[in-house]
Amino acid sequence: MSPNIKKFVCMTALAAAATISSAAFFAPMLRAADLSSYRGFRLGMDLNAVEKQVEMKTSEAKLIHQRPAVMQDLEWRPRSFPSPSGELDPVKDVLLSFYNGQLFRIVASYDRYRTEGMTAQDMIDAISTTYGLAAKPTAEILFPSLYSEKVKVIARWEDSEYSLNLVNSPYQPGFALVSFSKQLDTLAQAAAVEASRLDAQEAPQREAEHARRQSDEVSAKQEKARLVNKPSFRP
Fold it and tell me: What pTM was estimated for this model as a whole?
């Protein structure tokens, strides 16, 4: 074998070895992060399973809409006392939203005092240790609340099924993490729009029924008073 061929074979072998070594090194980094899970909650799990996990009752879930789909919210606060390591949980509260009994969105709001002084990049670095590299899109999402404000996305972790977004809380200085199932969130948003349409359509009938009930209650009260007062009345 000529010296040039020997040199080529050696270089090829070294390159192959380097490629294998590099692939082995980066393999853990290339594995897809599980974006469906947050602190033991898994997007798509049913309401009963969540209630058992957080030790809450079914009656504590707030009904948002009943038709065309059942929409419910469950507010959960992590234990406020220190962990065995002596650290306090930085999560202040978690809002769990359900579409027909399936968990479709998780909103974790962080305690402003437990994250005080931390920059957005600090938060991104910490979350990336669990969910991998983040994107920084120019985007906004609706923050679940009474007014459903739009908030800017600071960083995003996503795949074809799930999206996890770091945002600033619209109510106080601090951060929040909004994760959702893309499929269920699309269904939930469509159901919310239809529920609002039905509410507006049925509003006149509901108001008329409310007025009738009030009138009936006043009449019943008047008749009850009449039966008591009439026999004993003396001019």
Answer: 0.73
Give the C-alpha separation, 142 to 65, whole Å.
18
Specify the 3-state DSSP secondary structure of 142.
strand
Enumerate residues 6+ apart whose C-beta is below 8 A from 50: 41, 74, 96, 98, 103
Q: How many Cβ atoms from other residues are within 10 Å of residue 155's Cβ?
A: 22
Q: How far apart are CA 81 and CA 197, in angstroms?
A: 44
∠ CA 171-187-32, nearest 5°, is: 80
Q: What's the rounded Cα separation, in Å, for the pair 178 and 75?
A: 14
Q: What mean pLDDT comes out for the span 46-65?
A: 89
Read off the pLDDT of residues 75-108 as tens digits, 9 standing for 90 and up: 998 875 555 566 788 999 999 999 999 999 999 9
Q: Are 166 and 175 in contact (CB under 8 A)?
A: yes
Q: What's the CA gap between 80 and 15, in Å, rounded?
A: 54
The conformational region for residue 40 under phi > 0 = left, psi -120 to 50 = alpha, else beta, is left
Contact indicator for 112, 127 with CB cutoff of 8 Å = no
**Which residues lie below 8 Å from residue 146, measured CB to CB, with a gap of 6+?**
none
Backbone angles phi, psi at 101, to 5 degrees: 85, 0
Spell 91-106 as b/e; 16+ CB within 10 A means b: bbebbbbbbbebbbbb
